């Protein structure tokens, strides 16, 4: 690693084993620009719905002939990317060969409003504590995804305009999950990335997730490396509620921002992931776990998939019903907050996933024609735990904010959250992955992808 511990973000990563705060990221960006004025500049590219700045750090020379764009903070509950860009920015500055032909653009956080609501969770080290402070916005309030369902967020428009301005040859979106392994999704054929990706993961002790449900229908170019086919993503996200239209009680989401042109609903192709293709560019999504689990890479045929799919469907269906009943009980006392809106997305997913997984219903198609591997089935089992825990965590925070009128519901939600989180831990035995290793793997993967895309750039490949 090359992260500089003289910067506040670098100290967070290397000395304190924690993710940098947004303030530390901005502080580090300005410090790097002050140290290297001939190479670095920092600018605000827009403001969020709540008026928070979206900050871009650019590293490169005027003679560079290509741009890459690295985006973090697309999901408020995913913090690895903050550390990843700190490591990557210091690598680029330390190796002249990396910034001679390519300009590197780091969008420090795409959703600073969501990050504020998730801020406490970024400092936690246990799964129960993480979910106690959990926040992930409703689907239509997630800037990367909102255009797919007609949501018109200023953050989405800022990123799309930035892509139009930079025309990046590659866009990277740095993501993470609570429990799991690492995997990649790409809008282009990612076969060349499979080897350096696997080498980095193995060297850092990070399990490769070969059956993530996020990529169940995608073509696998190598272990844990998937090509994003739009029709397959649309098919899958329709089953999880992600392609549902904005809630009818939130008509303002259907009104364009005054500074934005009209934007039609267009499925996954309308997301920010596919925008670089207008200029011959592509997007790579890098997923890294916060807590690693060793149960997600087994490519052997699954044992008794019919019964286990049935159990997953029954579990997520029953937990969704319990939470829906508690929501109905508490709803008269709850304001329309970001927390309440957020809770509806995993509740919708719970209902629809139960149908999609149940072999007595749509789940039959999961078993044919592709053989169900142990990794794919375990990936579904992981979601059967994760989705209800997320919903309970969000609903609990919404109820807790309403105080006295919702006290009984809050107590029941506390009990459910503790019980389900304990079961989640017992099933997957998660192990904390040090932040420096999360960062190094993301930086290795981005650097390898840039080297493959710009093979004439000297010294582009990671050392590992």
Features:
464 residues; alpha/beta; 10-stranded mixed β-sheet; 10 strands
Task: Explain how this protein is built.
Strands 1, 2, 3, 4, 5, 6, 7, 8, 9 and 10 form a 10-stranded mixed sheet that branches. The protein is 44% helix and 13% strand. It contains 14 helices and 10 strands. β1 and β2 form a beta hairpin. The relative contact order is 0.14. About 4% of the residues have low confidence. With 464 residues, it is an alpha/beta fold.
What is the subunit organization of this protein?
A: single chain
Q: Compute the separation of the termini in Å.
A: 10 Å
Average residue-wise pLDDT: 91
Quick one: how many beta strands? 10
Query: What Rg is obtained from the alpha carbons, in whole angstroms?
Result: 21 Å
Largest sheet: 10 strands, mixed
Separate helix tally = 14
* Helix residue percentage: 40-55%
The assigned structural class equals alpha/beta
- Shape descriptor: globular
* Percent in strands: 5-15%
Poorly predicted spans: 246-265
- What pattern of helices and strands is seen along the backbone? HHEEEHHEHHHEEHEEHEHHHHEH
Secondary-structure map:
Blueprint: H1 8-14, H2 22-35, E1 40-47, E2 53-59, E3 66-71, H3 80-94, H4 96-100, E4 102-107, H5 112-117, H6 127-132, H7 154-166, E5 170-180, E6 183-186, H8 194-203, E7 219-222, E8 225-227, H9 230-240, E9 282-292, H10 305-330, H11 338-357, H12 374-402, H13 407-428, E10 431-432, H14 435-453
Parallel strand pairs: 3-4, 3-5, 5-9, 6-8
Antiparallel strand pairs: 1-2, 2-4, 6-9, 7-8, 9-10
Helix pairs in contact: 1-2, 3-14, 8-14, 10-11, 10-12, 11-12, 12-13
């Amino acid at each position: 690693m090359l992260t500089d511990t003289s910067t506040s973000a670098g100290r967070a990563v290397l000395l304190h084993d924690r993710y940098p705060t947004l303030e530390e990221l901005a502080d580090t960006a300005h410090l790097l620009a002050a140290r290297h004025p001939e190479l670095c500049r920092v600018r605000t590219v827009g403001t969020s719905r709540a008026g928070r700045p979206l900050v871009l750090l650019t590293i490169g020379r005027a003679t560079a002939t290509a741009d890459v764009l690295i985006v973090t903070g697309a999901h408020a509950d995913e913090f690895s990317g903050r550390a990843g860009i700190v490591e990557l920015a210091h690598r680029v500055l330390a190796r002249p060969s990396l910034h001679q032909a390519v300009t590197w653009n780091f969008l420090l956080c795409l959703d600073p409003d969501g990050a504020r609501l998730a801020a406490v969770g970024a400092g936690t080290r246990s799964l129960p504590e993480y979910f106690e402070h959990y926040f992930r916005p409703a689907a239509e309030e997630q800037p990367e995804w909102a255009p797919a369902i007609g949501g018109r967020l200023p953050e989405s428009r800022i990123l799309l305009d930035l892509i139009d301005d930079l025309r990046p040859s590659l866009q990277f979106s740095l993501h993470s999950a609570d429990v799991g392994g690492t995997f990649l999704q790409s809008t282009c054929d990612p076969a060349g990335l499979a080897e350096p990706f696997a080498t980095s993961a193995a060297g850092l002790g990070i399990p490769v997730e070969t059956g993530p449900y996020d990529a169940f229908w995608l073509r696998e170019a190598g272990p844990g490396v998937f090509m994003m086919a739009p029709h397959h993503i649309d098919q899958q996200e329709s089953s999880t509620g992600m392609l549902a239209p904005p809630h009818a009680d939130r008509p303002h989401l259907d009104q364009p921002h005054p500074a934005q042109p009209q934007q039609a609903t267009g499925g996954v192709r309308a997301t920010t992931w596919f925008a670089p293709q207008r200029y011959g560019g592509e997007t790579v999504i890098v997923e890294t776990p916060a807590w690693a689990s060793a149960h997600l890479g087994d490519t052997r045929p699954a044992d008794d998939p019919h019964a286990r799919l049935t159990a997953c469907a029954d579990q997520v269906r029953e937990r969704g019903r319990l939470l829906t009943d508690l929501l109905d009980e508490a709803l008269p006392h709850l304001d329309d907050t970001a927390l309440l809106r957020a809770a509806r997305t995993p509740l919708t997913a719970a209902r629809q996933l139960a149908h999609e997984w149940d072999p007595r219903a749509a789940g039959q198609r999961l078993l044919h024609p592709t053989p169900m591997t142990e990794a794919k089935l375990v990936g579904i089992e992981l979601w059967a735990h994760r989705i209800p825990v997320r919903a309970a965590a969000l609903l609990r925070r919404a109820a807790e904010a309403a105080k006295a009128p919702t006290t009984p519901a809050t107590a029941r939600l506390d009990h459910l959250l503790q019980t389900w989180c304990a079961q989640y831990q017992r099933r997957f035995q998660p192990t904390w992955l040090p932040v420096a290793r999360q960062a190094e793997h993301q930086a290795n993967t981005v650097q390898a992808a840039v080297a493959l895309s710009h093979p004439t750039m000297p010294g582009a490949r990671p050392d590992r």
